[in-house]
Q: What sequence folds into this?
């Protein structure tokens, strides 16, 4: 199996419809050991049963906006596993009011929050966990096409995704000498908890079915397949890239 003996740390499993869960399923099928974070008791109640269902080694609390919690999580993971081979960043958040109306109305606090959780957290996670990673390890983050196009109502989240993609390039350069690869997957719209906050994504699903080259929407497992490739030796010379998993809709969307 492609990921036999690999230890995969996945940030962002929210429920059984999330992209991170699709990645977890694909990793497990490929032989990886898994661990998930959760944010507070409400998410823990959803994540723990999923972790048990899939046979994850453990779950742990980590708010990625807290350097202290990230550092504590890294210490916990080091104690339980000793090392990490795969780090998945599938975390994003913006205030609902900043995903409505005009982008120009974004508040300073809302901008800071979205960029902190959705983008800076990747830097913070890499800083704490990369010392536990070695030659052949893989980091990946989830992004979206709106990072470089105008998508109605995506607003500040588009800016956060653009920042995230830029970070992927810089982190790839920083961590490359250690043999750690850093990439992003630009997934097409999926009916997830996060996507429900963006009005334009709901309408996009029908347009993709009608117009994308593959004439279908993607699933979390589609993303999981590409994530498995990026986590495996098959992508040993791939780093700093944004790989589209979107049924080809980005080829024709304007």
A:
């Amino acid at each position: 199996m492609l990921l036999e003996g690999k230890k995969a740390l996945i940030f962002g499993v929210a429920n059984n419809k999330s992209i991170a869960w699709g990645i977890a399923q694909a990793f497990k099928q490929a032989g990886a050991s898994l661990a998930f974070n959760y944010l507070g008791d409400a998410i823990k109640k959803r994540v723990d049963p999923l972790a048990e269902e899939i046979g994850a080694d453990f779950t742990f609390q980590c708010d990625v906006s807290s350097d202290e919690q990230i550092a504590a999580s890294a210490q916990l993971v080091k104690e339980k596993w000793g090392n990490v081979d795969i780090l998945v960043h599938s975390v994003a958040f913006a205030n609902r009011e900043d995903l409505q109306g005009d982008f120009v109305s974004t508040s300073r606090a809302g901008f800071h929050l979205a960029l902190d959780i959705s983008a800076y957290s990747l830097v913070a996670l890499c800083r704490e966990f990369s010392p536990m990673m070695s030659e052949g390890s893989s980091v990946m983050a989830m992004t979206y096409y709106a990072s470089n196009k105008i998508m109605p109502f995506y607003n500040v989240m588009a800016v956060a995704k653009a920042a995230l993609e830029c970070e992927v390039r810089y982190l790839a350069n920083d961590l490359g000498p250690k043999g750690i690869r850093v990439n992003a997957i630009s997934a097409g719209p999926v009916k997830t908890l996060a996507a429900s906050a963006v009005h334009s994504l709901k309408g996009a699903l029908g347009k993709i079915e009608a117009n994308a080259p593959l004439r279908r929407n993607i699933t979390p497992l589609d993303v999981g397949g590409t994530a498995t490739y990026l986590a495996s030796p098959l992508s040993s010379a791939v780093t700093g890239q944004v790989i589209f998993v979107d049924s080809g809709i980005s080829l024709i969307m304007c």
About this structure: The first strand starts at residue 7 and ends at 11. The CA atoms of residues 136 and 233 lie 7 Å apart. The two ends are 40 Å apart (CA to CA).
